[in-house]
Amino acid sequence: MSKDTLRIVFMGTPDFAVATLKSLVDANYNIVGVITAPDKPAGRGRKLNESAVKTYAQSKGLNILQPTNLKAESFLEELKALEANLQIIVAFRMLPEVVWSMPKHGTFNLHASLLPNYRGAAPIHWAIINGETKTGVTTFFIDEKIDTGAMILQDEIEIEADETVGTLHDKLMTIGSELVLKTVKLIEEDAVETTIQPKTDDLKTAYKLHKDNCKIDWSLPINNIYNKIRGLNPFPSAWCYLYNGDEKVTVKIFKVEKEVEKHHFDVGKLSSDKNELKVAVNDGFINIKVIQLPGKRKMDVKSLLNGYHFEENAKLL
To answer: pTM score, two decimals?
Structure first.
């Protein structure tokens, strides 16, 4: 099979997917259609917000479809009319079988973990939150379950000790786009060899993030707290309650450092001077570097301490 005979439909929505679509376009693959999320109203003016993939696809004059229902007959007819023989999925949604089984050469997905671990919605976040020292990307053929299909290729990367989800996201985005190109090349050469994902009871899962599991529990060991904050920085961000005098507000915490040492303070107790804001935990202190108060922009702690006073009884819970 030659590159010219491949007819590719690409499906994706966020920035993470753009890098892969761009690499396919730059490599002169024939992208016959791009499927992405419908425009959504955002902000106070409820202006329609386009996905990052749509914005890029428009700039390249690609054919774009934005279905609300992937099982709708109208969409399925449009998809069939593209006559694609390969579909590539990056950061999209779960596909019905009628869609993923359509092309001759199958439908493969890029997932930001070393499968079978961290199947699910937030693999980059949970790898950091759980204190992993390595992660990676995997391409696999889609089947009827979530992230369980036969694996094609993997690429591994180290997680730095001070890594955030933001920095790791960008690294995986780059190596992921390269892995997709390698996978397409194997399909092009009819040289794909797959590996069935092993079944085991101790797999780690990349659960969907929500308000409750983004809240900081200051009673946990210092490393758990440190990992959680960097694993949610900069999005969607870790949060907790600030009690300051008679005030109780929700704050978001982005960047921290950890200091392991013995002390006599209660968990959550805040201490501050002109340059530092520390919260006591069981086995040391979390030194807060970047924080956001309600209705304010996020700022470094030195800037915050210039105009904000913490009472003697201030604490985080």
So the answer is: 0.95
